[in-house]
Amino acid sequence: MASSSPRWILFIVILGTLMASVDTTIVLLAFPTIAGDLHAGLAAIIWVILIYLLLTSVLTTQFGRIGDMIGRNRAYNFGFVVFTVGSALCGFAASATDLVAFRALQAIGGAFLIATGTALISEHFPAAARGRAFGFTSMGWSVGAVLGIALGGVLTTFVGWRYIFFINIPIGVVAVALGLRYLSPSLRSRVRLDLVGMTLLGAVLSFIAYGAVDLASYGADAWNLTEMIVGGLLVVPFVLWERLTKFPALNLTLFRSRLLSTSLAAAFFQSLGYLSVIFLLIMYLQGVRGLSPLDASLLLVPGYVLSASLSPLAGRWADRWGAWRFATGGIGLMIAGVLLYGQLAVGSPLVAIALITLVTGIGGALFWPSNNKAVMADAPPDQYGSVSGLLRTLTNLGTIGSYTLVITIAAAVVPRYVAFQVFVAGRGLIGNVSISFLGALHDAFYVMALVLLAAAFFSILRRPRPVDVGRRSDSRVGPPSVPDPIPPASK
Description:
Elements: H1 6-37, H2 42-45, H3 47-70, H4 72-91, H5 96-124, H6 127-159, H7 163-166, H8 168-182, H9 195-218, H10 222-233, H11 235-244, H12 258-274, H13 277-288, H14 293-321, H15 323-341, H16 350-377, H17 384-413, H18 416-423, H19 431-461
């Protein structure tokens, strides 16, 4: 095994980020096609998205801890193997049930990747260079999103949706080979798994998510309301257990840090208010405007391209002038973009959508590397994996809430069969039905903008106070033997 170098570690983490990103956007574009081919209704096919988010939400904190225990290099490589195998099986799925099951396998591998990727960066990069490193990982996410959108449109339109999963296989093979060669053994910690806490957290999330999807699919009834209430009540024993156990699944003491707690809250509300926006846009483009997956994908590319180009530079700015400024500015641009989406009409120029994606693309480039830097700034080095997993857990929770919220809003504003026709079949609507569904989308965009205001609030709260000067954890420097691995942008 070759010795680890920051450059190779960064490249391998970028590959993992890119693969996860490709899988996220590529599935969204193929969503209506998959549902039609597998003859699945909304309640079944929505779990293709939610099972991945749900399992990664439950598993990331504990898988990050496994990385702390056995070595993050081993955990990361294992994640690549499982994710790649799961992707191949998804491509061969014969039914919606099979696809959901294989997506669950993907989620196990993805949980290892997302729980340990941020920790690997924090372990091998000094604090003064982490913003730029996270900028490059954010660039990997944006590049993956572009590839997912472009390939999703082409493959779904001309080849078939199954190849959107097969595309992960060559990426995974290369990533595993590089990981085995260049990821040398990393730091280990003497911690234990919290199986009770993980089980309680899984129960909380499962009851709430299942109840929310059932509510969105069939409307409110005693069964789904009871499910969500039970999930909410289980939070009490979960919190009590986490306060008593020596090695909690969620280390609640970490929230005593103002910088860490506000940064985590900003990440949660950003994902809750923004990560279903692409889903809403696809429903607008394919449902209201009647575009094909390929044509819809082309309109979404500009924002991701700009975000990919700007992210490394934005991360460097965060290193130099402070993360909170750029994270807050990024949220502000996202709010502006979502409000502009809320003004779209049946006959709005399609070029306007491409221009709005530039606004949100800049916002994402400013927020993600800056916020990741702020989250890891106050994380103890022996808990990098746990904190990285906690960050991903909260963002995935936000994403689950984001999807269920917009589906519920749409189904509440227009007849449920109309919402199903768009969400599942992806059919273009006409006349008053199209206008009614567009009104539902507007309502969803406005709700997302309100949620993003909460993210902006928490981002502003972490502004350094005079009392923090001189003892800020993000001024902590890394190991002196690790130089800045990224050449200056001017070179």
